Amino acid sequence: MAFSKPLLADLSSLGVKNVPSSYIRPISDRPNLSDVEMSDAAIPLIDLQGLYGPNHSLVIAQIGRACQFDGFFQVKNHGIPEDVIDTILHTGTDFFKLPESERLKSYSDDPAKTTRLSTSFNVKTEKFSNWRDFLRLHCYPVEDYIQEWPSNPPSFRKNVAEYCTRVRGLVLTLLEAISESLGLKSDYIDKALSKHGQHMAINYYPPCPQPELTYGLPEHSDPNLITILLQDQVPGLQVLRNGKWVAVDPIPNTFIVNIGDQMQVISNNRYKSVLHRAVVNSDKERLSIPTFYCPSSDAVIGPAKDLIDNDHPAVYKHFTYAEYYEIFWNRGLEKECCLDLFKISSA
What we know:
Elements: H1 8-12, E1 37-38, E2 45-47, H2 56-69, E3 72-76, H3 82-96, H4 100-103, E4 115-119, E5 133-138, H5 142-145, H6 156-181, H7 188-192, E6 197-205, E7 217-220, E8 226-231, E9 237-241, E10 244-247, E11 255-259, H8 261-266, E12 276-278, E13 286-294, E14 300-301, E15 319-320, H9 321-331
Parallel strand pairs: 1-10, 2-3
Antiparallel strand pairs: 3-11, 4-5, 5-6, 6-13, 7-12, 8-11, 8-13, 9-10, 9-12, 14-15
Helix pairs in contact: 2-6, 3-6
């Protein structure tokens, strides 16, 4: 009975004492939680207020260094009000507390659906399940998708639309800054994305009776351009730095920014899309809300011409984002980077 539940949250709510076998990773592929480094400065914290004054060039340089050496950074004074952040976290929690029958109205294993509730990562292809349920939403332009979103909780659509719009504003600010940090025109990356795409996920990680045996999400890099992550106050994100996993503990009212594969391509390998993972714990549920900003499917992505010269030949072929994402999805969260398949062999 317990194992027929389509969603992890409902299996977990039955009080299972042991992780079902489908979630148990091989010994060589477990989190090894005792070996994770704890650091107060796991990734840089950048104050975006400085973008709008005499410290503009200093902040641009900080962003450039973070993209080049860390692949991740955190931002404060980002312009998104605290009440908007609190509201979206509560809205996500409220959705996952709805009765099973209500949540399952959004359930689908079809990745082509632009609004869908599912579990793990790709239940059709993966060998091991991940300790996660997620609600995935396409959200730009908002008016194209809002009617698909859940209508329960009653304020869901209004709250998510407000949040999506605010985060898009932050992304556009960051894309200008990142373009500038590469020595490109401030609108270069914006124009490279064609019509733009924006998705978000509300990830729910229930308490796990044996967190050392499984992952919320195993190590991966993000296939999109840039990800803006909001965490609740329960740790879970870990980033690979110098061959060691480092825990990135949440800081209230900040966002974590991570560089995705498309940014690594546009920067001609100057900026790095870094491996990261989500672990779970036995005591507390965890909620995270990543916004995935990406090129539209028809956008042709390749290294910026101004970043190619005799000393820096083009590392990647040109490809459409649709081509890239299809390969990423079908491969699943493989350890080998999907980017390697798009390299120019002589690079």
